[in-house]
Design goal:
alpha/beta; 60s Ribosomal Protein L30, Chain: A; 7 strands; disordered C terminus
Length: 272
């Protein structure tokens, strides 16, 4: 709008005013909305995200990747065979109370030192007897058969085990009823000595062993036992005289401390 205020011959003196409306067509530039907050899943609430937690449903420690260590032995429960008993890493967290190298969980005698071959239990006289009940000698001789030598080696290994640590033994020989008392006494001592010598060859200290012969004494089987005496399973032990004589021909190892308690008792098969 123009407004003339005066007029001269040369020009007009005026005010000028203007007003306008502006229209813009097209989409307005709007910044994108901020991203939604990141939600970190931690189901057990131990401060360790589930994707980094080995035990996402059980509260645990960061040093064990979110797993607990219930017994405090430094082995997380997830890797611990005995999570409620403090143990050793070499046994996957299980203790070895008797120190025999067999963890208690696998040890049938966890408070008694024993070899692995006997499931962690110490050797007993009955075990040794069972292993060495078929020692044989050559005909009319005190010489052990070749088949008997490995059995004596087993006996030596057992006697040298910690189960019998510090013990000394008598190696006692016995015969059957056949023959004179003098001959049987001599051969029983010779056979006991033969077993002793072989034990020494297999590593048993000689000063732990003493050979003795008793000949026709201390029978395991008498005539009254034939076809009558039974074992714990109810089976007849001596069905005939031959079986009875065989049982009496034996070499037995007993403790020198007790003088009576048998450590090894072996049936000695002898042909006469």
């Amino acid at each position: 709008y123009n407004w003339v205020t005066n007029q001269s011959t040369d020009y007009s003196n005026f005010f000028q005013h203007s007003a306008s409306l502006i229209f813009k067509f097209g989409k307005k530039d709007v910044p994108p909305p901020p991203p939604p907050p990141i939600v970190i899943s931690d189901r057990d609430g131990d401060g360790i995200p589930d994707d980094q937690d080995r035990c996402p449903d059980t509260p645990g420690l960061a040093q064990f990747q979110g797993c607990p260590d219930t017994d405090g032995d430094g082995i997380p429960d997830i890797d611990d065979r005995c999570p409620n008993e403090a143990g050793l890493a070499e046994f996957q967290g299980c203790p070895d109370t008797d120190g025999d190298g067999i963890p208690d969980v696998d040890d049938q005698c966890p408070t008694q030192y024993g070899p692995k071959e006997n499931n962690g239990c110490p050797y007993t006289f009955e075990i040794v007897t069972e292993k060495l009940k078929n020692i044989n000698f050559q005909f009319n001789s005190a010489k052990l058969t070749e088949e008997s030598l490995p059995l004596v080696k087993d006996a030596a290994d057992m006697l040298n085990d910690r189960s019998f640590e510090g013990q000394k033994f008598y190696v006692d020989g016995y015969t059957d009823r056949v023959g004179s008392a003098a001959v049987n006494l001599r051969i029983s001592k010779q056979r006991a000595q033969a077993v002793l010598d072989e034990l020494v060859k297999d590593g048993v200290a000689k000063d732990r062993l003493t050979a003795r012969g008793f000949g026709k004494t201390n029978y395991l089987c008498t005539e009254a036992d034939i076809n009558t005496k039974r074992n714990d399973q109810g089976n007849i032990m001596y069905p005939d005289q031959a079986a009875c004589d065989k049982a009496n021909r034996r070499v037995v190892i007993i403790s020198q401390e007790t003088g009576k308690k048998p450590v090894i008792e072996k049936e000695v098969k002898v042909k006469k």
